[in-house]
Design brief:
- This protein is mainly alpha-helical.
- It has one domain.
- Helix content is about 70%, strand content about 0%.
- The structure holds fe (ii) ion.
- Fe (ii) ion binds next to helix 1 and helix 4.
């Protein structure tokens, strides 16, 4: 939230809301893990989102492009298949928690989309041609189907962007 100075007040209140929701997601998952006899850190996890946050810490446009609207957006795609797996394993509470997370993550991606386009307009950049350049420059992970098109539309991706994704980026 404080990384980049000189943005409008709405930018900071948006990311403050995201931080508060992320803290809730952590609490929900941590409590659920405890109910199953485990704790945060007991299992391996990837740090892809954090690694990208580090890599983009000097470039707000790349940060918006690659953290919320790439890695958080990948979470939108990953959630329904993960919920199906948990459902099959009989973990109804985890499915419920992921419903909350998915709903709020749509908002995070929407905020990322909003500020990415805002910055592109401010700086006279073409949002559509810049995005693939940033993906390459910062070695962002390749996004693979199935895509959660309904969630992505709700988060503000355009038909053009979704078509681009579906043809393999
Ligand atoms: Fe998020």
């Amino acid at each position: 939230m404080w990384r980049f100075a000189g943005m409008p007040a709405d930018y900071y209140s948006d990311w403050l809301r995201v931080a508060s929701e992320e803290a809730l997601h952590f609490t929900l998952l941590s409590e659920h893990l405890h109910s199953l006899g485990h704790a945060y850190g007991d299992f391996d996890a990837h740090d892809g989102l954090w690694a990208m946050a580090e890599r983009t810490k000097h470039d707000i446009v790349a940060r918006m492009a690659l953290v919320p609207r790439t890695l958080e957006a990948r979470g939108l795609d990953a959630t329904p298949p993960l919920q199906a797996k948990l459902q099959r394993a009989g973990d109804a509470r985890a499915v419920e928690i992921l419903d909350v997370i998915l709903r709020e993550e749509i908002g995070h991606v929407a905020i990322g989309n909003h500020w990415y386009h805002w910055l592109c307009r401010r700086d006279g950049l073409d949002a559509a041609t810049l995005y693939p350049q940033l993906v390459q420059q910062y070695a962002a992970p390749r996004l693979r189907p199935p895509f959660n098109l309904a969630a992505r539309k709700a988060a503000g991706f355009t038909e053009g962007e979704l078509a681009w994704l579906e043809t393999g980026g």
